[in-house]
Amino acid sequence: MNYILFDDDTRVHLLPLTFTRPVADIRVGILTIREKWEKLLGVKTSSKTENYLSNKFPLKFSIHDDNIWINGSFCPNEKLVEEITKLQPNQALILSNRVIAANSGTHKIIDFNMIDSFDVLESYASAMRVENIWDIFLKNEEAILSDFKLITSGRKSQAISSSNQIIGKENIFIEEGAKIECAILNASTGPIYIGKNAEIMEGSIVRGTFALCEHSTLKLGAKIYGATTIGPHSKVGGEVNNSVIFGYSNKSHDGFLGNSVLGEWCNIGADSNNSNLKNNYAEVKLWSYEKEKFVNTGLTFCGLIMGDHSKCGINTMFNTGTVVGVNANIFGAGFQRNFVPSFSWGGAAGFSVYKIKDALEVAARVFERRGLIFDETEQEILTHVFELTEKYRK
């Protein structure tokens, strides 16, 4: 079978993070949604996503095998995988009138808004779905618990140094090459997963549920509350609560980040903070790219959502429920606006356009610092997002 993860109309609810990736490449828990599917299916997948993303995330359609299309907003479990692998050609699986998967056989690429020609089966699997941007931190604990079991089952953790203070040792799993010294790890409230070649520096305090992905670092004296995911290849210090930080993003210094999501290649300046609770304890509203206005989230706690490549200067203050687009550069005194468009340069006093030429030059230098190449494909994606988001900068 050939497995393809597709974007449906959920994608717009997950902007700005899905400006630069398919829905399935969102990280929630320890793994991305794609990594979860590939681990349970035992195969590599491809993507059906926006045309401008297809060079980086190509579609591989097979004329020799049944093509199984899976909705990238659903997280897998064993029951759901069983239901999907049993699908016959021309059968579709739905849950609450939402297509989870379909078998199109060998002969057609299908439109998932048009499944009338399929034999429709109802799913009996209880599957977690990421359908709103805030679900990434809201459902992160559930996702970590599931991923922890999936990754560690039947395996043995590396030993924990005696220099550390440990509570709930049986709920801690440390991968090869990880370094932890003189830290406090409390896994009585949920599991703690430390990825390959990750490091927790001296004086750090971690309360599960928590995942530090491979090659990531907790800086000296970091204070981490669950349910939080960091990395891979990220550096974090200060205080973090119930947040998800994607790969290659840094919050290296003191300051608070709570109930938030940072995309890839972000940087939070020293002593920057976000509010995650309104002074009047009212429901938080968040910018919606679908409605092009602020919408109710139903949440009391909601912090910062930041798209890929965005950065803020030292002492930046973010309001409760702030959405920052892709490749914004934010600095200056005072609370920032609750919606900062992509490729904006400035702060509370006003913004100008972050010119695409300058933005691409900075991105290339950032990649180079990590030993990576900012190639033509990456340039084309950011250039397209720059054009796509122009209307928000007017």
Question: Which key features would you list for this structure?
Answer:
394 residues, alpha/beta, 9-stranded parallel β-sheet, 6-stranded mixed β-sheet, 6 helices
Radius of gyration: 21 Å
Strand content: 25-35%
Oligomeric grouping of the chains: single chain
Q: What is the percent of helical residues? A: 10-25%
Strand order, main sheet: write it out: 8-11-14-17-20-23-28-31-33
Query: Structural class of the secondary structure composition?
Result: alpha/beta
Strand element count: 35
Low-confidence parts: none
Sheet having the most strands:
9 strands, parallel
What would you note in describing this structure?
There is one protein chain. By secondary structure, the protein is α/β, with parallel strands linked by helices. It is built from six helices and 35 strands. It has a nine-stranded parallel beta sheet with strand order 8-11-14-17-20-23-28-31-33, with helices on one face. The relative contact order is 0.10.
Task: Compose a concise summary of this entry.
The protein is α/β, with parallel strands linked by helices.
